Amino acid sequence: MTYLESLLITVLSSSVVAAFISKLSKDKTDKLQYITGERKQWRTDLRYAVVALRQLYQSKKTKLEYKTQICGGLQFTDYEEAKSWFIVRLNPLNTDELSICNKIGAITSDKDIEFIEHDISFILKSDWERVKNEVSLIPKIFSWFKRKLTKKNISDFKCK
């Protein structure tokens, strides 16, 4: 094999490897952008739903029909509808998130709605922290270690 042939093989194989790495990197970036966008929409929808749930509670408490639709057009007619909305958007395998769904069906006081709002805010904050960790430059192993050290249950942060 001549020097020119060796050089040509090296250049071609390097180009193939570089193209493959570039494709993997682009696919990862696109996937991360899509997931991040979907999570952003999920957090926004969850915020709107908490506002709609509060409005439903206030309308039941005052026995007035509520007509405000400040929350992205989302309006619940009863607690079962609200519970269904949350069930399909929260993780049923997570006991803390499942307990939120169960609390929605049993709202009887201001304290109940405050607990739900607090629990949802904790979920939103946890998700936001997870997104920040995923896009940070810190290696994944350090990120995993940090999450293990700081992971808490919702029940550790209950309103008093």
What does this structure look like?
- This protein is mainly α and 160 residues long.
- The protein has five helices and no strands.
* Tally of helical runs: 5
- Strand portion: under 5%
Over all CA atoms, what is the radius of gyration? 24 Å
Flag low-confidence runs.
Answer: none
Query: Fraction of residues in helices?
Result: over 70%
Biggest sheet overview: none
Based on CA inertia axes, which overall geometry fits?
Answer: rod-shaped
Q: Report the strand count.
A: 0
Order of helices and strands: HHHHH
Average pLDDT, rounded to a whole number, is: 80
- Distance between the terminal alpha carbons, to the nearest Å? 79 Å
Class from secondary-structure proportions: mainly alpha
Name its key features.
rod-shaped; 160 residues; 5 helices; mainly alpha
Task: Walk me through the topology.
Elements: H1 3-62, H2 79-87, H3 95-104, H4 110-135, H5 140-150
In short:
The protein has 160 residues and is an all-alpha fold. It contains 5 helices and no strands. The longest helix is centred in the first third of the chain and has 60 residues.
